[in-house]
Amino acid sequence: MAEGGQDLSPAPQAGAAARHGGAGTVPALLARAVPWLFVAAFLAFVAAFMLAPMVTVLVQAVWGDHGPTLAYVRQLGEYRYATAFANSLILSAAAAAVGVVGGGLLAYALLRPGAPGWLRSAMTSFSAVAANFAGVPLAFAFISTLGTLGLLTAQLKRLGIDIYGLGFSLYSLGGLTLTYAYFQVPLMLIIITPALRGLRAEWRDAAENLGATVWQYWWRVGLPVLWPSLLAAFVLLFGNAFSAYATPYALTAGNIQLVPTEISNVLSGNVMESPQLGAALAAGMIVVMTAVLLVYWLAARKAARWRR
Amino acid sequence: MSARLGPVAVLAIVLGIVFFLTPLIVTFAFSLWEGGDRYGFAAYRSLVGDPDLWASLLLSLRLAAETMLLGMVLLVPSMIFVHLKAPGLKPLFEFIAALPFVVPAIALVAGLSALYTGPAWLIGTPNYLVIPYFFLALPYAYRAIDVGLSAIDVRTLTDAAHSLGAGWGQVFRLVLLPNLSTALLGATLLTLTIVMGEFTFASVLLFKTFAVYINDTGSSKVTEAAALSLLSFVITWAAMLGVLLTGRNTTDLGGTH
Question: From 1.10.3720.10, 1.20.120.450, 2.170.150.70, 3.40.1210.10, which CATH number describes the A78-304 domain?
Answer without folding.
Answer: 1.10.3720.10
